[in-house]
Amino acid sequence: MASLKDLRNRIASVKATQKITKAMQMVAAAKLRRAQEAAEAARPYAERMNAVLANLGIAFEGRADAPALMAGTGGDQTYLLVVCTAERGLCGGFNTSIARLAREEVRRLRKQGKDVKILCVGKKGADVLKREFGALILDTIDLKHVRHLAFTDANAVGERVLEMFDNGEFDVCRLFYAEFKSVISQVPTALQIIPADISNAGEAPDLGGAIYDYEPEEGAILADLLPRNISVQIFRALLENAASEQGARMSAMDNATRNAGDMIDKLTLSYNRQRQAQITKELIEIISGAEAL
């Protein structure tokens, strides 16, 4: 049984931890609002970009001169998985859920005989995946020094992916991230960015017999938009991750604070019981000694 001194030290230690988790919860709550606003602001642009590409891609469907970023390489043997996670932990199952989805995809593809390469954006995803698929990880892009995400950060990743595609290093690229729903809900998501998915164009608007006239022509527009779309989708994924990370951290630190409070109550109860038992024992010894005299 722990001594009174040990119990006092444990209570003091848990109280100090509770102060830290409470402070981290408040910091995450302050950061969440700005991160959520940025993620929600990026969604309409990214979704509209997909819609424009899908509408433009209809004209090239089945054509031999379709852009490679839309038509692909003609094969699907080699896959590049871009796994976006956080640089820090203490955010519940946020990093683990994204890594788990990527891990399941790797296993499924390898079972089909496909070659898989992994590009990690964020340290925590690499830490989880390297235990089983360390040989498949090409590199880990560190964003720890970035205080506020900018498009240039995503563009650097996008240029890396485009360079690998131009060099023929993969056929299909999929992006993994967590879509922010609420403080308690972040949904791991896999999005194919190469070749561009044009299946979500939606219902075509009724133009009353009119046709689109593009200036410049569709091919020139796609040549500019398709590479940009890679960076746009990566930027959206990073913003969604930033909001999801803060939401998950806020929820995790709130749970940790509550658990610390429960532990403090239990330790205090044990301390009081043991202290009362010790006092009672001393009183009995004093009374017994007095009676013996």
What would your notes on this structure say?
Strands 3-2-1-4-5 form a five-stranded mixed beta sheet, sandwiched between helices. With 293 residues, it is an alpha/beta fold. 61% of the residues lie in helices and 14% in strands. The mean pLDDT is 87. Helix 3 links the parallel strand 1 (78-84) and strand 2 (115-121). The longest helix is centred in the last third of the chain and has 75 residues, at 218-292. The two termini are 33 Å apart. Helix 1 (4-57) runs antiparallel to helix 6 (218-292), helix 3 (94-111) runs parallel beside helix 4 (123-133) and helix 5 crosses helix 6. It has six helices and five strands; from the N terminus they run H-H-E-H-E-H-E-H-E-E-H. The chain has helices spanning 4-57, 68-71, 94-111, 123-133, 151-166, 218-292; strands at residues 78-84, 115-121, 137-141, 172-182, 185-194.
Q: Quick summary of this structure?
A:
With 293 residues, this protein is of the alpha/beta class.
Name the features:
single chain; 293 residues; alpha/beta; five-stranded mixed beta sheet; 61% helix; elongated
List the helices and strands and how they pair.
Layout: H1 4-57, H2 68-71, E1 78-84, H3 94-111, E2 115-121, H4 123-133, E3 137-141, H5 151-166, E4 172-182, E5 185-194, H6 218-292
Helix pairs in contact: 1-6, 3-4, 5-6
